[in-house]
Amino acid sequence: MTTTHAKTQPRDKTDLFVSFTLLALQGFGGVLAVVQRELVEKKQWLTTEEFVEDWAVAQTLPGPNVVNLSLMIGGRYFGWAGALSALAGILLLPTVLALVLAAAIAGFVDSTLAHNMLRGMGAVSAGLIIATGIKLTSALKSNPMGQVACWGFAALAFSGIALLRLPLAAVLLGVGGLACVWAWVCIGKAQV
Asked: How many domains does the chain have?
C-alpha cells in the first residue's frame, strides 16, 4: 500500500530515541530492511516514496546511511533536539553492546565456528536487502524518469559491477551521471 503522506509521526523525542534504539538493536551489519519495515509499514512515519527519497539523500551524505536517516527524520519532526535524540537512539546502546560483545568474545573470534557464523549472517543480510529492494520498487511508479529508464539504469549498474567487474566508483560516476542527466531532462519536461 502506497500513500501520499505519512499517516502518523513520532509522539515526542523519547519516542524517537526508543524507536531508533530498537531499530539499531535489530540490525547488525545493515538495517535497510528493518528500517523500511519499521518506519514505513509499522510506524507509518514515512510513505514508501518518502523513504526512498530520504534513503537516497542519506546515501549521498558522508557516514552510515541509517545515521543520516535518523538525523533527517528527527530533525523533520523536532528540529535539532529531535535530530540529536534520534542520533543518540541509533548509536548509544548499540555502541555499548558492541563493546561488551567484543570484550566477551575476544578469545573466540579466530575460531572456525565464528567465521562460519559470520558467513551465515552475511547470507541472511544479503537476502534481506534483496527483499527490501523488491518491496521498494513500487516507488518507481512515481519516478519522473519512468520505470523503464530506472530498470535500464539498474541493469547497467549491475552489469558494470557484477559482470564486467568495473570499479564501483567508475560505475557510480558513469551510470549515476547518466541517470542524473536523464532525471534532470525528465523533470524539466514535466515542469513545462
From this structure: 2
